[in-house]
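Take one record.
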Amino acid sequence: MRRATLAGAALLAGTVTGLATGPAQAQEYRYWSVWEGKGSSWTYATEGPGTLRPADGAVTGFRFTVGADSAAAGKPRTAPGFDAICRATPAKEGRKRIGVVVDFGTAADAPGGERPPASRTECAQVSEDASAGEALAAVARPLRYDASALLCAVAGYPKAGCAERVNGSKGAGSAASPAPGAAADGGDDGGPSTGLFGGIAVLVVLGAAAGWQLRRRRG
């Protein structure tokens, strides 16, 4: 009887703990992500297109994607090769050249009723202090921003909406677009969930009950 009690408590505790610590599905958004070319790979930009100021010879990427945070965001599918993008654009005094890669994403990521255009690469020749947004505007108009200066559309895609939630996503997680790392709906701040604390509490109670049963039978 004692062994059965202990085994049952351990089994129930393990089940509850496993359920409590299971990862929550984060809320996903459909949005334009911004990237910086680093050699032959891409790095998620820590600034928006309005404040990011690439140097002459840099490559900036824009990818329409669906994700919950920067780790899940789709990268541009074209390599950031400046020489390949800007070889036909000669250097000019007082101007800088920035390679621009625009990836409109996949059909699966497209809003309902829209089809993503083909990806494109352009060489933007802009003023020396120009931002990534100005370089993008030089080669992929029209652009659309919201009131918070969030990039909503490139070359008119998508036609409407801005960083919208993707239907079917559950839970509260990190929004990848307007404010990376911010809690969706002001709910989850990234700390341990109440479910986790509840699972630990149940584990403690079950352990105490098993110990009491053991002491009672010894007595």
Q: What stands out?
A: The helical segments are 2-20, 82-86, 132-139, 194-218.
